[in-house]
Amino acid sequence: MNDLHAKLSAALAEGHGRDVGELESDVRFAELDRSTDAAVLIAVTERPRPTIILTQRPQSMRSHPGQVAFPGGKLDPGEDAITAALREADEELALPPTAVKVIGTTDRYHTVTGFDITPVLATIPPDLPFIPNPDEVEAWFEAPLDLLLARDGWSSQEAFWKGEMRRYFEMHYEGFRIWGVTAAIIANLAKRLAWEEKA
Protein backbone atom coordinates (compact mmCIF):
# COMPACT_ATOMS: atom_id res chain seq x y z
CA MET A 1 0.00 0.00 0.00
CA ASN A 2 2.98 2.34 -0.47
CA ASP A 3 0.98 3.83 -3.37
CA LEU A 4 -1.30 5.53 -0.84
CA HIS A 5 1.62 7.15 0.98
CA ALA A 6 3.11 8.29 -2.32
CA LYS A 7 -0.22 9.64 -3.58
CA LEU A 8 -0.89 11.61 -0.41
CA SER A 9 2.71 12.87 -0.30
CA ALA A 10 2.49 14.11 -3.89
CA ALA A 11 -0.91 15.74 -3.34
CA LEU A 12 0.27 17.52 -0.19
CA ALA A 13 3.49 18.72 -1.85
CA GLU A 14 1.56 20.01 -4.85
CA GLY A 15 -1.04 21.61 -2.59
CA HIS A 16 1.55 23.58 -0.64
CA GLY A 17 2.49 25.33 -3.88
CA ARG A 18 -1.08 26.11 -4.89
CA ASP A 19 -3.41 28.94 -3.88
CA VAL A 20 -6.38 27.16 -2.34
CA GLY A 21 -8.31 30.29 -1.41
CA GLU A 22 -9.86 30.94 1.98
CA LEU A 23 -9.59 28.00 4.36
CA GLU A 24 -12.00 27.08 7.11
CA SER A 25 -11.27 28.53 10.54
CA ASP A 26 -13.49 29.68 13.37
CA VAL A 27 -11.31 32.65 14.27
CA ARG A 28 -9.05 34.97 12.30
CA PHE A 29 -5.38 34.66 13.24
CA ALA A 30 -5.15 38.41 13.92
CA GLU A 31 -7.76 38.03 16.68
CA LEU A 32 -5.53 35.71 18.72
CA ASP A 33 -3.84 37.58 21.56
CA ARG A 34 -2.67 34.35 23.15
CA SER A 35 -3.00 30.82 21.89
CA THR A 36 -1.96 27.35 22.92
CA ASP A 37 0.02 25.36 20.36
CA ALA A 38 -1.45 21.93 19.67
CA ALA A 39 -1.17 19.17 17.09
CA VAL A 40 -3.37 16.36 15.80
CA LEU A 41 -2.57 13.22 13.84
CA ILE A 42 -4.55 12.54 10.67
CA ALA A 43 -3.76 8.82 10.48
CA VAL A 44 -4.83 7.26 7.17
CA THR A 45 -4.97 3.47 7.14
CA GLU A 46 -3.35 1.62 4.27
CA ARG A 47 -6.50 -0.31 3.32
CA PRO A 48 -7.82 -0.95 -0.20
CA ARG A 49 -10.38 1.71 0.72
CA PRO A 50 -8.33 3.93 3.06
CA THR A 51 -9.87 5.20 6.29
CA ILE A 52 -9.06 7.90 8.84
CA ILE A 53 -8.79 7.11 12.56
CA LEU A 54 -11.07 9.26 14.72
CA THR A 55 -11.83 9.29 18.44
CA GLN A 56 -14.71 10.47 20.57
CA ARG A 57 -13.71 12.50 23.60
CA PRO A 58 -15.24 11.69 27.00
CA GLN A 59 -17.98 14.01 28.27
CA SER A 60 -15.79 14.72 31.31
CA MET A 61 -13.09 16.54 29.33
CA ARG A 62 -12.73 20.30 29.85
CA SER A 63 -12.29 21.22 26.18
CA HIS A 64 -14.60 19.96 23.43
CA PRO A 65 -16.27 17.26 25.62
CA GLY A 66 -17.98 14.44 23.76
CA GLN A 67 -16.82 15.63 20.36
CA VAL A 68 -15.28 13.52 17.61
CA ALA A 69 -11.61 14.41 17.25
CA PHE A 70 -8.31 13.36 15.80
CA PRO A 71 -5.78 11.99 18.29
CA GLY A 72 -3.86 15.00 19.53
CA GLY A 73 -3.34 17.65 22.13
CA LYS A 74 -1.11 20.43 23.42
CA LEU A 75 2.59 20.62 22.61
CA ASP A 76 4.88 19.96 25.55
CA PRO A 77 7.84 22.34 26.04
CA GLY A 78 10.48 21.72 23.38
CA GLU A 79 8.20 19.65 21.12
CA ASP A 80 7.37 20.29 17.50
CA ALA A 81 3.97 19.44 16.01
CA ILE A 82 5.00 16.05 14.62
CA THR A 83 6.54 14.89 17.90
CA ALA A 84 3.47 16.03 19.84
CA ALA A 85 0.99 14.39 17.44
CA LEU A 86 2.84 11.06 17.61
CA ARG A 87 3.11 11.23 21.40
CA GLU A 88 -0.57 12.04 21.83
CA ALA A 89 -1.67 9.24 19.49
CA ASP A 90 0.46 6.82 21.50
CA GLU A 91 -1.00 8.10 24.79
CA GLU A 92 -4.60 8.05 23.56
CA LEU A 93 -4.69 4.85 21.47
CA ALA A 94 -1.37 3.08 22.08
CA LEU A 95 -0.55 3.82 18.43
CA PRO A 96 3.21 3.19 18.33
CA PRO A 97 5.16 6.02 16.68
CA THR A 98 7.25 3.42 14.82
CA ALA A 99 4.09 2.33 12.94
CA VAL A 100 3.41 5.85 11.66
CA LYS A 101 4.77 7.02 8.29
CA VAL A 102 4.62 10.81 8.50
CA ILE A 103 3.89 12.68 5.28
CA GLY A 104 4.00 16.21 6.66
CA THR A 105 2.07 19.01 8.28
CA THR A 106 -0.86 20.77 6.68
CA ASP A 107 -2.81 23.98 7.30
CA ARG A 108 -2.94 25.27 10.85
CA TYR A 109 -6.36 25.75 12.40
CA HIS A 110 -7.16 28.44 14.97
CA THR A 111 -10.07 27.91 17.35
CA VAL A 112 -12.15 30.39 19.33
CA THR A 113 -11.20 28.40 22.42
CA GLY A 114 -7.59 29.52 21.98
CA PHE A 115 -5.85 26.59 20.29
CA ASP A 116 -3.48 26.92 17.32
CA ILE A 117 -3.64 23.39 15.88
CA THR A 118 -1.17 21.92 13.39
CA PRO A 119 -2.52 18.77 11.67
CA VAL A 120 0.06 16.07 10.84
CA LEU A 121 -0.82 13.83 7.89
CA ALA A 122 0.48 10.24 7.98
CA THR A 123 -0.29 6.68 6.95
CA ILE A 124 -0.47 3.64 9.23
CA PRO A 125 -0.92 -0.11 8.68
CA PRO A 126 -4.48 -1.43 8.99
CA ASP A 127 -5.79 -3.35 12.00
CA LEU A 128 -3.36 -2.11 14.63
CA PRO A 129 -4.38 -3.30 18.14
CA PHE A 130 -5.43 0.05 19.59
CA ILE A 131 -5.89 0.33 23.35
CA PRO A 132 -7.89 3.50 24.08
CA ASN A 133 -6.99 5.50 27.18
CA PRO A 134 -10.34 5.90 28.99
CA ASP A 135 -9.29 9.28 30.41
CA GLU A 136 -9.00 10.70 26.89
CA VAL A 137 -10.94 8.41 24.56
CA GLU A 138 -14.52 7.24 25.00
CA ALA A 139 -14.57 5.44 21.64
CA TRP A 140 -12.61 5.25 18.40
CA PHE A 141 -13.63 4.40 14.85
CA GLU A 142 -12.55 4.50 11.22
CA ALA A 143 -14.31 6.51 8.53
CA PRO A 144 -13.56 6.21 4.79
CA LEU A 145 -11.08 8.79 3.52
CA ASP A 146 -12.97 9.34 0.26
CA LEU A 147 -16.23 9.94 2.13
CA LEU A 148 -14.65 12.47 4.49
CA LEU A 149 -12.90 14.38 1.71
CA ALA A 150 -15.98 14.60 -0.55
CA ARG A 151 -17.73 17.95 -0.14
CA ASP A 152 -21.19 16.53 -0.91
CA GLY A 153 -21.03 14.28 2.15
CA TRP A 154 -21.18 17.29 4.49
CA SER A 155 -24.04 19.58 5.45
CA SER A 156 -23.49 23.23 6.35
CA GLN A 157 -25.05 24.36 9.62
CA GLU A 158 -25.21 27.58 11.63
CA ALA A 159 -25.36 28.24 15.35
CA PHE A 160 -25.34 31.39 17.48
CA TRP A 161 -22.31 31.25 19.79
CA LYS A 162 -20.30 33.90 21.62
CA GLY A 163 -22.36 36.75 20.23
CA GLU A 164 -22.48 35.85 16.56
CA MET A 165 -23.72 33.33 14.05
CA ARG A 166 -21.07 30.78 13.15
CA ARG A 167 -21.09 28.35 10.26
CA TYR A 168 -19.83 24.80 10.62
CA PHE A 169 -19.80 21.53 8.71
CA GLU A 170 -21.41 18.36 9.98
CA MET A 171 -21.55 14.69 9.01
CA HIS A 172 -23.20 11.76 10.76
CA TYR A 173 -21.35 8.48 10.29
CA GLU A 174 -22.38 5.21 11.96
CA GLY A 175 -23.79 6.97 15.01
CA PHE A 176 -20.97 9.51 15.35
CA ARG A 177 -21.42 13.23 14.71
CA ILE A 178 -18.36 14.74 13.05
CA TRP A 179 -18.41 18.53 13.21
CA GLY A 180 -16.67 21.63 14.55
CA VAL A 181 -12.89 21.70 14.63
CA THR A 182 -12.50 18.17 13.23
CA ALA A 183 -14.83 18.86 10.30
CA ALA A 184 -13.06 22.11 9.49
CA ILE A 185 -9.62 20.45 9.52
CA ILE A 186 -10.96 17.80 7.14
CA ALA A 187 -12.44 20.51 4.87
CA ASN A 188 -9.08 22.28 4.78
CA LEU A 189 -7.30 19.03 3.98
CA ALA A 190 -9.69 18.32 1.10
CA LYS A 191 -8.98 21.78 -0.34
CA ARG A 192 -5.24 21.42 0.12
CA LEU A 193 -5.11 17.98 -1.53
CA ALA A 194 -7.67 18.89 -4.22
CA TRP A 195 -8.92 15.37 -3.52
CA GLU A 196 -12.16 15.51 -5.55
CA GLU A 197 -10.25 16.80 -8.58
CA LYS A 198 -7.91 13.79 -8.39
CA ALA A 199 -10.57 11.15 -7.64
Structure summary, number of beta strands? 11
Report the major sheet.
5 strands, mixed
Q: What class do helices, strands and sheet pairing give?
A: alpha+beta
The count of helical stretches stands at: 5
- What is the overall pLDDT average? 86
User: Judging from the principal axes of the Cα atoms, what is the shape?
Assistant: globular
Low-confidence stretches: 27-32
* CA radius of gyration: 16 Å
User: How would you spell out the order of helices and strands?
Assistant: HEEEEHEEEEHEEEHH
Range of strand content: 25-35%
Helix content: 25-40%
Distance between the termini: 17 Å
Structure, explained:
The chain is of the alpha+beta class. Helices cover 26% and strands 33% of the residues. It is built from five helices and eleven strands, in the order αββββαββββαβββαα. It has helices spanning 2-16, 81-93, 145-149, 180-193, 195-198; strands at residues 36-45, 51-56, 68-69, 72-74, 101-105, 109-110, 115-124, 139-144, 155-161, 164-173, 176-179. Strands 1, 4, 5, 6 and 7 form a five-stranded mixed sheet that branches. A hairpin with a 4-residue loop joins β6 (109-110) and β7 (115-124). The longest helix is centred in the N-terminal third of the chain and has 15 residues, at 2-16. The radius of gyration is 16 Å and the shape is globular. 29% of the residues are buried. Residues 27-32 have low confidence and may be disordered.
